[in-house]
Amino acid sequence: MNESRTAEQAERILPFFLQPWFLIAASFAGMMTRHSEHVIVFQAAQIRVLLQFIRSKGHQRILLNDRQRSQLAKAGKPLGRKVIGECCPVFTPDTILRWHRELVAQHHTHGNQVQSRSSGRPPLSPETVMLVLRLANENASWGADRIEGELKKLGVIISDTSVENILKDHGIDPESRRKECSGTWAEFLKAHWECLAATDFTTVDVWTPTGLKTIYLLFVIELKSRRVQFVGSTQHPNERWMLAMVDRVCVPEGILGGEYHATMLILDNDTKFSKAFKSKLKDRDVQPKHTGVGMPNMNAYMERFIGSYKRECADRMVFFGEQMLQYATNEYLAHYHQERPHQGLDNELIIPMPRPPDPEGAVVLTKRLGGLLKSYQRAAA
What is the spatial distance between Cα 66 and Cα 71, in angstroms, rounded to a whole number? Predict the structure, then answer.
């Protein structure tokens, strides 16, 4: 009896599945499933190609922000590890699921986090943090206690422990290294501005009637003002010539002459700075100070000037004779002192203008060396 009832039910249901509209719907559903599979396969291939392209540019990892990780975690959780592994070649299934766990944990602990932030000591203001860092960076020998005292003078009340924490968070040793630090080379130079000068040679190749010759040029710079003196040039900087250069630079209008001349001269270990040369400097109350071997940064101001002279003048000209070289060098120094703003002097001129520029005056172009050196100024009203 049960078998006959089952047969009757099958006879009633079978026509339903054989209806044309059902067959059409089933076929359409099958087509949609295959279409979705093709879309997924295409998207997975597209992601793999994009990932290969990104890695070919040197990016081994794709870094996402919290919002992007949250979006992937929510979308990937219902799929499970197997499906994620098949359709997501960029991130592993474990990564997607770990993001989901972190999202759930963040959701459940959000209320507690908000409550914990509102309790305890209030955080320091960004202005206070920046002030602590400024004092630490501008005073290498100050420790946390010294910075705390200076802040108190400025009306900022903060404990030495807080100062230590700020310095540690920004990679600055709050105590031992700073107390032993004697300051930077730049700080040493600025502390001795009034008495420091520096000297060095550079060379330029010049065409002469007998062929190409190398000319040595000697410069001296006053560190504080950046004023430069072209002492002289020669093919043979022997000791006799070097002693004559001492007389040139120690005249009243020279860098090492006058009532308030520099009393220390920075120079390298070139053999042209002989014992007799240094002895004559000492006779003129100038103490020579040697840089370390292979340490051009100890004579950085002189090196910087020579680099500018080469880039802006000497390397851009072909010289026919030493006289032409001397003329071009003097023209460059006139431009350097009177027309060229200097970043090390807050973009001011070494020799100030005799009067402030007239804002209503026309802008006039001044050229030197055939337009190689250019400057602009306001015409007088």
Answer: 9
What pLDDT does residue 171 have?
A: 77
Can you read off the two tokens belonging to residue 123? 């955080």
Q: How far is CA 148 from CA 39, 124, 134, 151, 184, in A?
A: 64, 14, 13, 5, 23
The pLDDT tens digits of the residues spanning 230-264 come to 999 999 999 999 999 999 998 888 888 877 778 88
Rounded-to-integer distance, Cα 381 and Cα 376, Å: 16
Output the six-digit token pair for 298.
């100890």
* 118-155 per-residue burial string, b: 16 or more CB within 10 A, e: under 16: eeeeeebeeebbebbbebbeebeebbbebbbeebeeee
If DSSP codes are grouped into helix, strand and coil, which group holds residue 253? coil
Q: Please report, for residues 33, 271, 310, 377, the alpha-carbon distance to residue 228 in angstroms, rounded to integers and kept in the order given.
A: 82, 23, 15, 23
Q: How far apart are CA 141 and CA 139, in angstroms?
A: 6
Arithmetic mean of pLDDT, 308-335: 95
Residue 48: in which H helix or E strand, if any? helix 20-56
Query: Residue 114: its pLDDT value, please?
Result: 44
pLDDT tier, 376 (very low <50, low <70, confident <90, very high otherwise)? confident
CA atoms within 13 A on the CB side of 20: 0
Please give the structure tokens belonging to residue 233. 């040039």
Pairs from 154-161 (Cβ < 8 Å, separation ≥ 24): 156/128, 156/131, 158/124, 158/128, 158/132
Largest Cα–Cα separation, the chain: 135
Rg (CA), the chain: 39
pLDDT in tens, 9-41: 544 544 544 455 445 555 655 655 666 666 676
Nearest partner of 235 among 201, 195, 268, judged by Cα:
201
Secondary structure E strands in 189-335? 196-208, 211-222, 228-234, 264-267, 287-290
One-character DSSP codes across 101-141: HHHHHHHHHHHHHHHHHTSSSPPPPHHHHHHHHHHHHH-TT
- For residue 282 the two structure tokens come to 């000492």
Residues 265 and 244: beta-carbon distance below 8 Å:
no
